[in-house]
Amino acid sequence: MSLETDFERVSLPLENAFTISRGTQETAENVVVRIEDDEGTVGVGAAAPSEHYGETAATVEAVLPDLLGVVEQVGDPHQLDRIERRLRETVERNPAARCAVSVALHDLVAKRTDLPLYRYWGLDPEEAVPTSYTIGIDSTERMAEKTETAVERGYDVLKVKVGTDRDEEIISTVREHAPGATIRVDANEAWSPREAVRKIDRLAEYDLEFVEQPVSADDPEGLNFVRDRAVLPIAADESCVTLPDIPRIADKADIANLKLMKCGGLREAKRMIHTARAHGLEVMLGCMIETNAAIAAAAHLAPMLDYADLDGALLLESDVYEGVPMPEGDIDLAGLDRPGTGARGG
Ligand SMILES: [Mg+2]
């Protein structure tokens, strides 16, 4: 068998500028990877690089020739384990670049098997958890409007970005405009440990589900301090990047927030899910701002999760791919009428 590969950068405009405690973005630069077999079947994947983890579209483009060289050399896309191991040996960092290749390969092998990816894996679509929809930091009036829009669109799990000097005002406003919603918050490392405990006490009055990454990932003892004292469950995101982080956070958080773009691929994500459960953690799968060419694959892991935050493509103004349907935030794997990840278009 022989495989042909190529890649292309895509610039994706966001519906609204997206602000978290660290900064603002208005477009997402993704890199789409295509792997074609000698029967003309094409698998697609994409990298959504994050500067926070040291990657940009340019660093992805710089390493993809070496990574795709591995794929062409192995030649058999069904050798997923061997290929992903060799991708890691070839480029140890650059997880988003490796992830793009992993997703494209999984799309290809599921298409060659003529099954949607979740069925290739043997997962139960009825077990899929709904995705949250993220409300980025903005003026309080704009956050109220965004909340109203989200409720109108039927999203009943909202993730609200905090880490400002008006966090309580933000959460009380969102709660006022979404009285029936499940609300989780994400501080993206913005608080000090003592500030976090104090703020979580206040914010908990608005009936929140959990708090994500209250303190710096560089402060594991601070995370431990918060988790011991906080009245809400704590999720670790920036503190939980690759598999060896799972045992490190196991007694410092309640929920591990995994992302394909942090861990470098679908097989690694599944290993992390099982490892997290073995350490007594609940499991959340999050995302970057991503084209459906990437996030469609993550959606197929939804039956293995406790919480999903897979709205990366829902936040785009327009996308070059369509993916797994997510009407009102419900990840509708059973409604997928095509094999592979479901990414279609491009
Ligand atoms: Mg987060």
How would you sum up this structure in a few lines?
The protein has helices at 57-74, 80-90, 95-112, 117-121, 140-152, 167-177, 193-203, 220-229, 245-249, 260-263, 266-278, 292-299; strands at residues 4-20, 23-36, 42-47, 133-135, 157-161, 182-186, 208-212, 234-236, 255-259, 282-286, 307-308, 321-322, 344-345.
User: Order of strands across the biggest sheet?
Assistant: 4-5-6-7-8-9-10-11
Label the overall shape: globular
Small molecules in complex:
magnesium ion
CATH architecture of the largest domain: Alpha-Beta Barrel
Task: State which percent range the strand residues make up.
Answer: 15-25%
CATH topology of the largest domain: TIM Barrel
**Largest beta-sheet characterization:** 8 strands, parallel
The level of helicity is 25-40%
- The SSE string, one letter per element, is EEEHHHHEHEHEHEHEHEHHEHEEE
Supply Rg. Answer: 19 Å
- Low-pLDDT sequence parts: none
What is the terminal separation in angstroms? Answer: 25 Å
CATH class of the largest domain: Alpha Beta
CATH H level of the largest domain: which superfamily?
Enolase-like C-terminal domain
The class by helix and strand makeup works out as: alpha/beta
- The number of distinct β-strands equals 13
- Assembly of the depicted chains: single chain
Number of contiguous helices: 12
